[in-house]
Amino acid sequence: MVKAKINNILVEVEENTTILDAAKKININIPTLCKHPDLHATASCGICIVKVKNSNKMLRSCCTPLENNMEIITHDDELQSVRRTVIELILSNHPNDCLQCARNNNCELQRLAADFGIREVPFKQFLRTIPEDSSTKTISIVPEKCILCGRCVQVCQDIQDVWALSFLERGHKTRISGAGDINLSESPCVRCGQCSAHCPTGAIAEYDQTKKAWDMLYNQQKYCVAQIAPAVRVAIGEAFGFKDGVNLTGKLYAALRRLGFKAVFDTSFGADLTIMEEASEFVSRFVHKKGKLPLITTCCPSWVDFMEKFYPDMIEHFSTAKSPHEMVGVLSKTYYAQKNNINPENVAMISVMPCTSKKYEITRSDEMFASGSQDIDVVLTTRELARMIKQAGIVFEDLPDEEADHILGDYTGAGVIFGATGGVMEAALRTAYFLITGENYTNIAFKNVRGLKGVKETEIEISGNKIKIAVAHGLGNVEYVIKRIEKALAEGSELPYHFVEVMACAGGCVGGGGQPYGVTDKLRIARANGLYNEDDVKKIRYSHENPFVKKLYEEFLGKPLSEKSHSLLHTKYKPRALYKK
Length: 581
What we know:
Elements: E1 2-6, E2 9-13, H1 19-25, E3 49-52, E4 58-60, E5 71-73, H2 77-92, H3 108-115, E6 139-141, H4 151-159, E7 165-168, E8 175-178, H5 194-198, E9 204-206, H6 210-218, E10 223-228, H7 249-259, E11 263-266, H8 267-286, E12 295-296, H9 301-310, H10 324-332, H11 335-339, E13 347-353, H12 358-361, E14 378-381, H13 382-391, H14 413-416, H15 423-437, E15 455-462, E16 465-473, H16 478-491, E17 499-503, H17 521-537, H18 547-557, H19 563-569
Parallel strand pairs: 1-5, 10-11, 10-13, 12-17, 13-14, 16-17
Antiparallel strand pairs: 1-2, 3-4, 3-5, 6-9, 7-8, 15-16
Helix pairs in contact: 8-10, 8-15
């Protein structure tokens, strides 16, 4: 342990704790701009400077460890003056279009300028004219607003291991760009949106489609239906002042109806359906030897894109089951439309997702048009829906709780935990156990696949057979799992895993690239707990016991893995080039 003083307050912290983090422990806030809790400190902005008594140096607190007997000063006239000057210099290279910016009222640079009371910039403004890149149709890069903090590059390269973003040129010409100065759509980008989730300004944001959604809602010829993903319900409240992780499912249903949607479904129903198909697929491979092991889950479109680009040799191990929202999408234009005598051509399905890559998924292959038209018309992120609710004048916090439309809206506890890392695996194992033994697994909570450890490994015994499991989240953690599988396959040795879950974003969908800004591990845990708490109180916690899923198979699909379910609920994969020519 290290003992020191910060602003004459004694603090004791573990060795190698930074001055910045030590100050937080005694409720002293040192301003920062480039530092993010998920990432290593780069000390690029220089705003977090502090002084050490009897030294003429100013240290950057985000990367300087606290040492024994240090006496730190975090705020005085000189420090405040230097910080103010740094902010003014940044502003001299930054556009003044806050009112039109995607991060207006939620921008870290804007907040610092307000905190320091900056009304004028004494330096001559120098703006770079660099074109916007919205080529992926999932995120938009506005390089003029980049403050060169390096967060997006670090999360893309070090956390996600994608390497789609990089800095180009030097000095005052330095800029952010797709790797090799190409459009992002031509790069290895997997559209996860983690760059936008970690950007402190409006330099990277989701590709906004709220106007397209409004146009559909205002079109009297359209029968607009909506669905919400599990992770949305435990994050949307952050935009309206609710406590972190509070589950607001009922209020979301009410808000969507007030926006004008004629029917409101729940993606958690689709999760139950995905489990029926995916668990059946696993049993077919593991028990009946029809297909290769391990089976790898595919609910995350960024992971699918990553696999097709980086590990195409793994395609035969991927589950062909579509993601839950795609299943609900195709059923809204087939099963639901038929039962309610609605012309499928008039149905407009809008999905509310925690994820930017879902915007890409809805057109990724021909199977996303299984209903005869595009199964999902628009994908909105959690952030976009929050803006629409505010635009509509809805007082969200005062809304009553409502229910989803039952035909595609009722779900089990297994369906709702899809939003957290390990949730897909846990739900699948509950049903796979039943499909193999005919009995429900009583130790229903698979705690070993929960939590924020990058790779979680465990096993479960079913009818005398041990099933080896791996759960990875954050694409940078995938290589360890895949390399172990590839090595075993190449050597013909025993497989390290039989069943694998991967989510592109740290924490799973609760930490998705379309969720409210400011995500940290503390937030990820709070959001995940909101889902697990709902699972705990659900009367039905097994996907195979969902009465509306049973009814769907009886009336429409036949059985899991049937010809009809394959045509509507399954997809295909193909190798994709890392760089498009």
